Amino acid sequence: MQRLSSYNANVIANIVIKSDLENTLNLTLAKIESIIKANHEELLIDKSVLNTFKSDFIKLFSGYTKVRQIFKYLNLINDSYDVNKSLHYIGINVVEPKEYFDPAYISDHIRFNCQDLSQSEDQYLFMKLRSVCENRNMSKSEFISWIISSEINKHFILIGNNSSLYRNIFEDLEGFKPIWDILGINDRKHYRIGTLNEMNIFEINDNLPGATIFCLDRRLLGRLTQFLPTETNESEDFHPPFFFKVEQFASNDSLIEEYMKDPAPWLLEAGNSNAQKSKLKQSVWVRILEKLILF
Fold it and tell me: For residue 168, which of 192, 191, 139 has the smallest C-alpha distance?
């Protein structure tokens, strides 16, 4: 098979027309499109592009997370990479067009996947936090009175899931020191907005309805622990912290057969079996999985 790091329909068309010009002067548009499609199916994405996709994703992913960044700031992350078969995976399992891996677009594609998986991780971790917290409904005045008069101290942290936390509650609260007064900068990297009597306050948006403030005791919080997403850390698909596999249908007949046994709705839309096979050959299977838990 011919290997190219990118593919452009116009370039392929020019090549086809140039090579066939002497023998066939009356190529119809339909035939040109057919030849382009056939060539496109057989083209393989260069391995260096796939390796860039993996390495850049792993390098950039953490910066898109929110809850993870807070635990990182608190030094409460444990990359044990032990096996835990009872945990469910969080991740991405999609079929994508080859065009997404064109060098001209791959950086945007990496960012999109980072955002997609980081949102899934944040929502999962937020739900875990909700499950271990006592639920209290308070007015603003009741909440302020409680955090000022209770025994909350530097061992506690507050995490707000609403981006208006600072403006609505802490902006004019006595004892609150915004982060830009402490550091001279806005520390959005770890979502810390300031301190209240030595208690760190974080503000993020979890994209879930309803405003919630988590009051957490660091001494009881435990750690964000990362487990192996594979059966062994010697798996060639293990790229800490992810199980990371990118497969091209054009070079894997068994993968094509697997997807065509019980075609998904998006594949059925392509038409008959030949059309489905053609669509798969122009696609890439991306699977990125992780396992983690709080506490």
Answer: 139
Torsion, Cα of 145, 148, 154, 158 (10° steps) = 30
Do 194 and 170 touch, CB atoms closer than 8 A? yes
Residues 6 or more apart whose Cβ sits within 8 Å of residue 276: 260, 263, 267, 268, 270
Structure token digits, residue 247: 């497969």
pTM check: above 0.85 = no
Give how far the C-alpha of residue 113 lies from the chain's centroid of Cα atoms, to the nearest Å: 5
Q: Are 245 and 287 in contact, with CB atoms under 8 Å apart? A: yes
Q: Tokens standing for 82?
A: 């032990």
In whole angstroms, give the CA distance from residue 176 to residue 171.
Answer: 8
Asked whether the beta carbons of 147 and 216 are under 8 A apart, the reply is no
83 phi-psi bin (left φ>0, alpha ψ -120 to 50, beta other): beta
Helices (H), the chain: 9-20, 29-42, 47-64, 67-73, 106-132, 140-149, 165, 179-182, 218-221, 253-261, 265-268, 273-281
31 vs 2, 28, 216, CA distance in Å? 20, 5, 66
Query: Longest C-alpha distance within the chain, in Å?
Result: 90
Helix pair angle (106-132, 47-64), 10° resolution = 40
pLDDT at 12 over 50: no
pLDDT digits (tens, 9 = 90+) for 98-132: 989 988 889 999 999 999 999 899 888 888 888 88
